[in-house]
Amino acid sequence: MREIDRILDKIESCIRESTYYPVETDRIEVKDLSSGEDWKELYKSACAFLNANGGILIIGIKEKNKNYQLTGFNPDNEEKIKELAKKFTNEDQKPLDLQGYFPSIEIKEMLDKRVCLVFVEKLPEEMKYVYYNKEAYERRLTGDHKIDKHKLQAQKELRDELANAREIQIVPTASLDNLNIDKLNDYLIRLNRDIKVESLKADIPSALSFLSRKNFIRDGKPTLLGLLVCGDNIYDFVQGRCQVDGFVESAIEIAQNKQIIKDNIIQLLEQSFVFVLKNIQVGVSAEKGGKSKPEYPEKLIRETVNNALAHRDYSSDRFVNIIIQPDQHIEIRNPGAFRADQKILIDQVVKTRRIIPNPKARNPRLADLLKSFDRWEGRGIGMASLTNSCLDNEIDVPFYILHTENDISLFVRKGKVLDEPMKLWLDSFSGFIYKQNKGRDLSEEQEIALAYFYKSELLNRQERYTIILTPDNNHFDVISTLEENGLIYRHPNSPDLYPVFLVNRVLVKNEYSNELLQIFGGAFDNLSNDYKDVLDATYQHNFFSREDIVSAKRVNNYLYSKKFGPTSDVKHYENYYRKIRTIFNNLEKGGFIVRADGSKPRFVLNTNFPRTPSLFD
User: Fold this and answer.
1) Residue 93 to residues 84, 87, 96, 131, 139: CA-CA distances in angstroms?
2) Contact 426, 545 (CB under 8 A)
3) Confidence (pLDDT) at 285
């Protein structure tokens, strides 16, 4: 069943049972049309869908005060609905005929009346923005909003860039004979999966109008985009631009794998996705009677591969690499570069490397094409999907490595943002956090966001770029609360429009040599690093944790997770724990730590230690 049919069933159920369930989204709008003013609002919503990501208008239902009323669609309005595509103008107020972007109108039965569905296709970037009644609107959440003049100007500049986009450049060595009608129709079948958008074509001559409109051909010659979609012997013309090399890198030689994929863009996407899915672990969840569950979210895998192919630099003939490191990460390496306005590079105070999830696409037509198969079910949102998966605790913090000016790797990491090491880190500072948070425990959302910021800092120190959290790609009220309570703060040199948040400096400190020298003096100088690590951890828990008394087990778990990550090798863990127990015994014998209650092996630092002069006094 299509998503729109499920929505209609939900509305019908609400009407029958006098209940309410919100259905309007950034792609769904309910309209009544029983008054003239309603028609103006319909035109605004259609304009907003055209200028954003498309959507569906449901006509014949009135929504007011969280209540649905079935008013029904008046068949006398059918001709007026068919003229909807001619209600808009360009910025010079010249009328437009956008019939191709209103691909379908459906009449559906509901109870004793009918409703009308109007499907609105998003405009390509080179046609945005269109106007209704001298105003341009765009869809944001459930509302239609006027587009401000700065955004309108930025879009004009983008249109100029797109005029010379690489994806629609003519491939001089190719001709119309190199386009395959069966491949074109395969694309159209996929495009028409839910709603018929375009008729199948008998041959290439009969498809010329469509090919030209979609920029698959220009001046009678195939473009790069056209060849990627429906070209024959495509590698002869575009070389590595139609290739993905997949690798599985494992310490076990028999588990290693390599696959070279060369194909048209849609098949390339599908085969690359299948390669990843076949070479990652798939478990079984308790949901829905034992549903299979890959170690990375399946939708995120598809979108990440999609983005690599859609946004790569097609001026280079180098191919895309997908490298799977079992139980660690998926690396997607492709030719391309971030624009200067996407990179935040700050070295003062704290080394900071962040990427702004800028929506401008390098190859917007190709990006739209690859997203079009899920046109009415949802939409990919690029980097925001990565951060959303992080904040849902489905993956660990992803990062980018910029190898050269035109070579980028994205690492999607297995695990969780709020994993066991992060829980132990938060526990070690739980007293400090509790006070900063005004006597309240952090919610899980707040813990995940705080862990994201902390891990971002650690990755940035290694020249790894992480994705900045913005109001568009995170639970922003969570960040506001963390900032208000002083658990995070804005980097003093971060851009005004894209504030970079850093963790309170108390929370990033894990070395307390100066404080321990004040307590132990020269005796601390003579200790080995392992002993100093144990005292550092003990100090941190004694002074910053709500449970300020430590055991050897607790310090061991904290240090082990900090040095080695989550426990995976039981023998290695047990050997390390024995070493920590020995250190605890020796520190107690030496008077560095004392039992908190005199009997149980739970310790605090001995602040009455007979201090001797230090080398640093």
Assistant:
1) 16, 11, 9, 8, 21
2) no
3) 52
CB 420 within 8 A of CB 451: no
Contacts of 307 (CB under 8 A, 6+ apart): 367, 380, 382
What tokens were used for 370?
Answer: 């690859």
Distance of alpha carbon 240 from alpha carbon 57, whole angstroms? 42
Query: Smallest Cα–Cα separation from 179: which of 137, 146, 140, 214?
Result: 214
Instruction: Give φ, ψ of 401 to 5 degrees.
Output: -115, 125
φ, ψ for residue 299, nearest 5 deg:
-65, -35
pLDDT score at 380? 44
CB of 285 closer than 8 Å to CB of 291: yes
CA 346 to chain centre: 23
Give the separation between CA 144 and CA 45, rounded to whole angstroms: 6
Question: Residue 580 CB: number of other CB atoms within 10 A?
Answer: 22
Question: What are the pLDDT digits (tens) for 83-122?
Answer: 999 999 999 899 999 988 998 899 999 999 999 999 999 8
Q: What is the DSSP string of 276-316?
A: HHHTS-EEE-SGGGT-EEESS-HHHHHHHHHHHHHHS-TTS
What whole-number distance in Å separates Cα of residue 579 and Cα of residue 597? 24
d(CA 437, CA 289): 41
Residue whose C-alpha is closest to residue 208's, from 183, 230, 176: 176
Query: Residues of the chain whose pLDDT is less than 50?
Result: 286, 288, 375-380
Burial tier of 495 (Cβ tally within 10 Å: 0-12, 13-18, 19+): middle
Residue ranges of E strands in 103-166: 104-110, 113-120, 137-140, 143-146
| Assigned token pair, 492 | 């003093």
- CA 151 to the chain's CA centroid: 23
Rounded to whole angstroms, how far apart are CA atoms 369 and 410? 22
Which pLDDT does position 375 carry in this prediction?
43
The predicted-structure confidence for 543-582, as pLDDT tens digits, reads as follows 999 999 999 999 999 999 999 988 778 999 999 999 999 9
DSSP 179: B
CA gap 489, 492 in Å, rounded:
9
Q: Which two tokens stand for residue 77?
A: 């309005």
The partner residues of 612 in beta bridges, in order of sequence, read: 521
Measured distance between the N- and C-terminal CA atoms of the chain, rounded to whole angstroms? 76
Cα gap 502→472, rounded to integer Å? 19
> Which pLDDT score, from 0 to 100, does residue 360 have?
66
The full 3-state SS of 352-390, as one line of letters, equals: EEEECCCCCCCCHHHHHHHHHHHCCCCCCCCHHHHHHHH
Q: Read off φ and ψ for residue 170, nearest 5 degrees.
A: -65, 140
Residue 44 near residue 50, CB atoms below 8 Å: no
Distance from C-alpha of 437 to C-alpha of 546, rounded to nearest angstrom: 13
What is the predicted pLDDT for the residue at 253? 63
Q: How far apart are CA 585 and CA 608, in angstroms?
A: 18
Residues contacting 497, CB < 8 A, separation 6+: none
Q: How much is the pLDDT for 519?
A: 96
CA angle 247, 252, 258 (to 5 degrees): 20
Q: What angle do CA 245, 248, 249 make, to 5 degrees?
A: 120
Query: 258: which 2 tokens?
Result: 């390599």
Q: How far is CA 495 from the centre of its chain?
A: 21
> How does 178-192 read in b/e, with b if 16+ C-beta sit within 10 Å?
bbbbebbbbbbeebe
DSSP-derived secondary structure letter, 336: -
